[in-house]
Amino acid sequence: MQKLSLPLPAPDALAASQALQQRILDELAQHQGWLPFSRYMELALYAPDLGYYSGGATKLGKDGDFTTAPEMTPLFGATLAQFYAQCLPQISAQVMEFGAGSGKLARDFLSECRTAGIAIERYFIVELSGELRARQEEYLKDFAEVQWLPAMPEAFSGLVLGNEVLDAMPVDLLRKTANGWREVGVALNTSEHQPALHFVERDCNAARTAQIPDADTLQEGYLTEVHAVAIGFMHSLSAMLQAGQAQTGKAAAALLIDYGFPAREYYHPQRHQGTLMCHYRHHAHPDPFYLPGLQDITAHVDFTAMAQAALDSGLHLHTYASQAGFLIQAGIAQVLARTSAEQVMQYLPQANALQKLVSPAEMGELFKVLLVGTELSLPATLLQQDRSHRL
Predict the structure, then answer these.
(1) Is the Cβ–Cβ distance between 183 and 204 less than 8 Å?
(2) Are the beta carbons of 84 and 119 closer than 8 angstroms?
(3) Backbone angles phi, psi at 351, to 5 degrees
(4) One matching Pfam family, short form (predicted)?
(5) What is the full per-residue pLDDT of the chain (391 aa) written as tens digits?
(6) From CA 91, how far away is CA 159, in angstroms rounded?
(7) For the chain, the helix, strand and coil percentages under 3-state DSSP, each to the nearest 5
(8) What does residue 356 show for φ and ψ, rounded to 5 degrees?
(9) Is 209 left (phi over 0), alpha (psi -120 to 50) or beta?
């Protein structure tokens, strides 16, 4: 791995990263010196107090490592609230958000509900990090509808929101070799002056490649990710939504927005180095071992696998669309139009942000929207951009 030239962390942040590295080394010692990459990624992102999402560092916006759609503009959350309104009264007047981050999406969503008179009884946030929950509680203190949950409940009927949630779930790495597929895990390299984490392969069960179309035809050396954790999340989500409908008699749905591809594009022969990427101080790079706990580690989403998991668990696939297609049909232009173009200082930043959200050269095509749920009738306009046939 080539040496990276990235901004240096503050001394306290560096100390936290070193503490996390030691925790990873301790776990390696307990498991014969080898860990699945998914376990390494779980520790790097979610280890209590030290992981990227469970520690105290700023993650989002200009002072963080990357920017998400809610951080760019309130139009995003307002448009999702307008979509939610179109699902009422078929669903319960409740929303549940996973991966709420700073709370910006929740605030924009609830502000739109308040302004537009959209009924909402509860806005649940499932938050594992006490540090993030404390930030969200302060940021959302004016919204009594918000309630925090430490884990996914057994039943829920309403709308689930997950913006850039699936991409942050741990993945396993597989490589095609002359002798078949092997799992790429993490081990300690003790041959150098300083101990360093590195990749080491081992044999894996052939069933691990079930997610990969035409796995046997891919070229030797092909490296990719498989998404057992995210698939498990989809199964749990499906059970929760179906239990919610059984309890209330109302429909339930999950709206998942993320960057990714259908399986045939995800596992394309040309994508032979996979999609794993790291984000540190607005720099993207491929080294997951750089300052663990201080950088984000993500992989693109295999939307075919997510949709199939929902279908296998008994849900309906309502739509799969580009972010641009979904937001436009959900009314983002109409939300922007409330601000007069003559109010240049207010209008232009929002118009520029809208362009980033829907432009094919920006987020419009790379980001996709997957809507799954129990039985739900959607307006025909929302289905005009449906691409389910590509999954």
Answers:
(1) yes
(2) no
(3) -65, -40
(4) Methyltransf_28
(5) 455 677 888 899 899 999 999 999 999 999 999 999 999 999 999 999 899 988 765 544 444 456 799 999 999 999 999 999 999 999 999 999 999 999 999 999 999 999 999 999 999 999 988 888 999 999 999 999 999 999 999 999 999 999 999 999 999 999 999 999 999 999 998 776 666 899 999 999 889 999 999 999 999 999 999 999 999 999 999 999 999 999 999 999 999 999 999 999 999 999 999 999 999 887 899 999 999 999 999 999 999 999 999 999 999 999 999 999 999 999 999 999 999 999 999 999 999 999 999 999 999 999 999 999 999 999 898 889 999 999 9
(6) 7
(7) 40, 25, 40
(8) -65, -35
(9) alpha
The pair of three-digit structure tokens given for residue 6, joined into one six-digit string:
């990235």
Burial class (CB in 10 A: 0-12, 13-18, 19+), 7: exposed
Q: What are the φ/ψ torsions at residue 52 (nearest 5 degrees)?
A: -55, -45
Q: Give DSSP secondary structure letters for 291-302.
A: STTSSEEE--EE
DSSP 306: H
Token pair of 157, please? 């009927």
Q: What's this model's pTM, rounded to 2 decimal places?
A: 0.94
- Residue 74's alpha-carbon distances to 66, 88, 144, 173, 335, in angstroms, are 17, 22, 20, 36, 10
Cis bond before residue 170 (omega within 30° of 0): no
Supply 379's token pair: 């307006």
Q: Under a CB-based contact definition with an 8 Å cutoff, are residues 163 and 301 in contact?
A: no
State the residue for tokens 């709420």.
Answer: 100
User: Which amino acid belongs to residue 217?
Assistant: T
Q: At what angle are helices 228-248 and 37-46 packed, to 10 degrees?
A: 60
CA nearest neighbour of 267 among 182, 209, 351: 209
Tokens of residue 55, six digits:
């520690």
For residues 294 and 297, give the distance between their C-alpha atoms in angstroms, rounded to a whole number. 10
